[in-house]
Write a structure and sequence with these properties.
Elements (H helix, E strand, L loop, with lengths): L2 E6 L7 H14 L3 E5 L2 H7 L2 E4 L26 H14 L3 E6 L1 H12 L3 E6 L15 H21 L3 E6 L6 H10 L3 E3 L7 H13 L5 E6 L5 H12 L3 E5 L11 H19 L5 E6 L2 E6 H6 L6 H10 L1
Parallel strand pairs: 1-2, 1-4, 4-5, 5-10, 6-8, 6-9, 7-8
Antiparallel strand pairs: 2-3, 10-11
Bound molecules: adenosine-5'-triphosphate.
Adenosine-5'-triphosphate (ATP) binds next to helix 4.
């Protein structure tokens, strides 16, 4: 193996650039020729591919987003579409790929590996919704963004003795709300694995106000309910002014934290090591403080991490 490509796919995440930098530099350090593929699997089938040297990845470690851009191409699940991608790789002589993204990206990487292109998946998503790793690249940055944003809301909620309902990202994974709720000292945390029914939320808010609490912050994972409607209901039933805030895509942006950069660096180097060992169809994860790697099919079937300990912490101190 002499030529390796790299792409970022699915939703972008801070730290993808740091991972790109690590993969490119680790590849070059091992005598490989490195290629970037723009726009994820879409750029792959279009042949939007470019050979790069180490300066291509200079000055990007601190940048959010992904300089090689990302895209979604649902048609990549079709074997004929993937064949077009493989033809493009053949034109450039690229024999292996590093694919940075979420579960969908992993599925694309596994499918390509089964067709003879060794691919390694790296977990790049703010949602932390990949079961085969304790932490994904981008999660820590988004978590810090949420913690800071809730801190700012707390100031104004407190001045107006208001209740704020803050919706954070995560899709179907509650980690951003759970960790963000604990880190920001939110009063009520609602996620799919730490659910609260409407009546319980209202009762808690009334109790807190009776105990003299000036501001009340409710943090909630997206897709669980209409937060504007929830805020109106809280206001109607408690007589406390309540506003819903949807943090939205600002959670995706910003300079990656040191933790995300280090994770990206470690995982990028491991991806190249695995390819040099002749491995493909695998993904890299973090377990405790150690890097691990799994067969992608096995990884995609893993049950969700158990957050019981953290949920207990949230229940005790929020
Ligand atoms: P995020 O978690 O941020 O959404 P993701 O990688 O899960 O990231 P998806 O949009 O699900 O995002 O997947 C990214 C891309 O991976 C898809 O647009 C598609 O090109 C490819 N992909 C997804 N599922 C498959 C599949 N079953 N087979 C082949 N390729 C796939």
């Amino acid at each position: 193996m002499k030529k390796v490509g790299i792409l970022t796919s699915g939703g972008d995440a801070p730290g993808m650039n740091a991972a790109l930098r690590a993969v490119v530099r680790a590849g070059l350090a091992n005598g490989l020729e490195m290629f970037v593929i723009y726009d994820g699997y879409k750029g792959l089938i279009e042949g939007n591919i470019k050979q790069v040297d180490r300066t291509f990845v200079s000055d990007i470690i601190n940048r959010g987003g992904t300089i090689i851009r990302s895209a979604r191409l649902p048609e990549f699940a079709d074997v004929e579409v993937r064949k077009a991608g493989i033809e493009q790789l053949k034109k450039f002589g690229i024999e292996a790929l590093v694919c940075i993204g979420g579960d969908g990206t992993y599925q694309g990487a596994k499918a390509l590996s089964d067709m003879g292109i060794n691919c390694i998946g790296l977990p790049g998503t703010i949602d932390n919704d990949i079961a085969s790793t304790d932490y994904t690249i981008g999660f820590d940055t988004a978590l810090n963004t949420i913690t800071n944003a809730v801190g700012m809301l707390r100031d104004t909620s407190s001045s107006h003795q208001r209740c704020s309902v803050v919706e954070v990202m995560g899709r179907y994974c509650g980690d951003l709300a759970l960790y963000g709720g604990i880190a920001s000292g939110s009063d009520i945390i609602v996620t799919s694995d730490h659910p609260l029914v409407r009546d319980e939320i209202i009762e808690k808010i009334i109790k807190m106000r009776k105990e003299g609490k000036q501001h009340i912050i409710v943090i909630i994972t997206e897709k669980l309910c209409d937060v504007h409607e929830l805020a109106r209901d809280i206001e109607r039933r408690t007589n406390i002014e309540c506003r819903a805030e949807i943090l939205g895509r600002i959670q995706r942006g910003g300079s990656p934290t040191a933790r995300d950069r280090v994770l990206a660096g470690r995982m990028g180097v491991r991806a190249i090591e695995l390819l040099l060992e002749g491995k493909g169809g695998r993904c890299v994860g973090l377990r405790g403080s150690d890097l691990v790697d799994y067969d992608i099919n096995e990884a995609l079937k893993m049950p969700k991490r158990n957050n019981e300990q953290l949920i207990k912490v949230a229940r005790t101190i929020s």
